[in-house]
Amino acid sequence: MISGISHITFIVKSLDKAAIFFKKIFEAKEVYSSDGKEFSVSEEKFFLLNDLWIAVMEGKETEKSYNHIAFKIDESDYEKYLKKIESLGLEVKTGRKRVEGEGNSIYFYDYDNHLFELHTGTLETRLLSYKKERTD
Description:
Blueprint: E1 7-12, H1 15-26, E2 29-33, E3 44-49, E4 52-58, E5 68-72, H2 78-87, E6 92-93, E7 105-109, E8 115-119, H3 123-135
Parallel strand pairs: 1-4, 5-8
Antiparallel strand pairs: 2-3, 3-4, 6-7, 7-8
């Protein structure tokens, strides 16, 4: 039985730039660097974002798509995160049309075309918003 997410891996061109990205935006803690010793398919770094293990491995750049991972933030932190993203010169993507009450999102690409979302809502608020929209 699945008990949760073990880890998330991103392929990146530069481990150093990825480290800056995860530390600056998410305040992730670097807990491992292969430093030239490859135990996996390429050099890698591991980060902890709260209890979430994120691995980055050197490889080829990916193409942009809507595939993404979304992290929950408080509405009061929206502007703070937007400023962090802009301070790194990252591309902010225009978000999709929203239903009132489902929460706000910031979509942005990292240095390797991975799409991230910072979202202020929850599944519960989204479902309630969609239900209300259907009955109006």
